[in-house]
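Reply to dn_fold:

You asked what the input looked like. This is it:
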Amino acid sequence: MRTGWKRLAAGVATLAMGLALAAAAPKPAEPARGPAAVAPPVTPEGDMVVSHGQVAVDGRPLRYTVHAGLLPIYDNDTGQLAARIFIIAYTADRAPGAAPRPLTFLWNGGPGSSSSQIHLMGFGPKGFSMPATYPEWKAPPAKLADRPETWLTASDLVFVDPVGTGYSRATSEAWRERLYTQHGDAEAVAEAIRVYRTRFDAFDAPLFIGGESYGTTRAMEVAGALARRRTPLSGVILISGSYEVGEKVPAATRQALEVTLYTATAWYHHRLPADLQALPQDQAVARAAAWARSDYAPALAHPDQLSPEQRAAIVAALARYSGVDSKVVDARTLRLGKDAVMDNMLADKGLELGRYDARLAIPHRAPGQVWGPREDPSLLPMIDLMEGTSPALIRYLRGDLGYHSDLLYRGPWGGSFHPDPYLPTGPVLKDDWMAAMWDHHAALNGGRGAGAAAGPPEPPPLAAAMTAEPKLLVWSVEGLYDGSCAERAEAIADSPAPLRARVRASCYPAGHMVYTDRAVRLSLQRDFTAFVHDATAR
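and this is what came back:
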């Protein structure tokens, strides 16, 4: 027995000595962990990932669920998969049995823009941390922050990336050609709305749609497509883009009212004559609008009937209300283009203004250099932010939402694998890959596509939708430093009488992306809430 205990004690001592030596010996270096070792798998194309979040609104938490993934778009006749459309849907958490909330589908324009701008700079519950006003931007923010001004307070939100944008793609070149048209694009978005409402049993939710820039054309087309499908639609939101219901505003009046944009811009930059500059901005703009209607529009309509003295008076007044030298005005046509104003208003300071937000300025480009979106000061702060190479954007999609894809999250300026070169034909196309691939002939042929036989004229899609759905309301949103709010008001006033009363317009002190300033986002949230309330109460 004693011998056994001695052997056990010796064994323990040997083991202890071995452990001590092992601890004292230098440890071998661990193999380096590269990104591939921790990269999560790509999300399967048929999966919809689910995550949860909350945002504090007026001191109270608004909890929500997020679904992110691809919706299949099938050809109805053959069942063939034509495309997949990527969506990010935010639904506010509610008690079982609660009444369905309004449901709003939103997208951007381009036509090659993903929904990232309207989503993460605009109306989602998370957004890029920005200064109070857009002109104060110096560099893109690196992270997202809670967005109490979110439209989720009044409606569930689905951000849609049309085919060719974001992670949305056609399944073949043949389908791409059919869907890169005004009609095909809108039909695909309308079908995505149907698939979503079916998959999530959202048939009872009051339905709203909205788009920005070219997205307004898409929204009007989608409204028409939904009307053809007998899908009830409560409201259409048109942000910084088109409006067409059959109004007949003379071209001369439309052109004349463009001066109000220049007056607002000149007032902002202190470039108006002293008497106009001393007025509140809205009064200075109102005076410009009154002159445009009473004097300028008639002159543009009949320029050949003007005497030399009358032409000189028009040129002088146009320069006065536009804040530029009279030499900039085309004395033959009596017109003053937006490019000329933005290039010349601050030329004495060596600056040019943004075409999409005339508050912003950068050093004037070199002589002979053609303007392009990448050289525009109103786009510079967000180009890198909204491209698919943006770390902050991709980290939100992959990290926060849990959606993983090796595809480029495609924005309007390309930047991905293009084995076949395309031949742009102008300064805008050189930076907008989708504009070079889009079938623009289809838009000129009633959306039917190039080579299609012309048919009888049809009512504008939005007018057809408003006629089919008598309770449908329309909200037109414009930025004071992007386009003429007076021109939009004129178009609405000239709309057919049965439709006119169902259209409202708002003009905000903002640029093309009206949601960049926090104060404007708060106003938009308030006005969106009122619009949804009025549309659902009808």
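The chain has a mean pLDDT of 86.
Hope that clears it up.
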